[in-house]
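User: Fold this; tokens only.

Assistant: Input:
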Amino acid sequence: MPDPTLHCPACGTELAPNLLACPTCRRLIHSDRLKALADTATRATSPIDALVAWREALELLPPGTRQYDTIQAKITDLGQVVDTLPSPPPAAEKSNGKGVGKAAGLGAIGLILWKFNAFVLLALTKGKVLLLGLTKASTFTSMMLSFGVYWTMFGWPLALGLVISIYIHEMGHVVTLMRYGVKASAPMFIPGLGAIVRLQQSLGDPRQDARCGLAGPWWGLGAALGSYLLNLATGLPIFLAIAHLGAFINLFNLLPFASLDGGRAFRSMSTNQRWLAVLGLGAIMSLCEGQEASGLLALLMIGGVLTALTGKAPKTADSPGLMAYLGLVAILTLICERLVPMPPA
């Protein structure tokens, strides 16, 4: 058998298989591959293609090095370009970067409409993206297992609506991760607990992480509104129950804890913005009449206070992230409280 031992081509030092740089002369182990990826990223005609190449290059560099920080900065800048692109994004030459700062000037209403329009556009023109996850055996099998569990708990109509709502939520994460050039798994259902998407690369930038986190509730909001429209069209109360349950689950996901979507959103906010978010949550809670939404909003406020007091905040503020978070909370609360209240038992 051939000798699997690796040696540095520059100084001959024996290398461990997982090393990224020679411990003796500091030569990068994957220098040739890094040059090829840099060339690919530079020649890319789309910011998404460039992001894919730069993210692969980042995996081949030791963290904390100058090259690593330089490429991470490129990824952050390209992510801001992607934020300004419609869905599906045009080629890179149609986006010269002049719109990078425009998102920060959007009002909350404009941001909400822009996000929802992007979801509607994708559903109408790229609906096949929603079926992407179902081509994976692991997704389909785990989805059917969850459907069986929920069937025993709620009956098959509500169970079916629930797993579809969860799937749409998770595909929101998947599609947004794809826009940022991040490799990730298809959704994996966990019976009784929801579903997860496993990242195969690190996002690095808190703003991009927040956008990917909030994409799930945005798509979940679309699913809840779609179920509500089906109720209006058919008069069947089951669609009202699905809309309410879907809205409540997405609101729960906005809790600013750990790896929940709300926690990812809060990590992109400055400390002052976190306190503004807490005040905004309090204002929304003051308009609630039912105990269900009020109790959940109280938990959101507690999580926001704890994060503001103890969580490490980024140096730069994220105004669009703050507005998107509060907008989502407000709309989902409105759905639970007024538009589709829980049907009587």
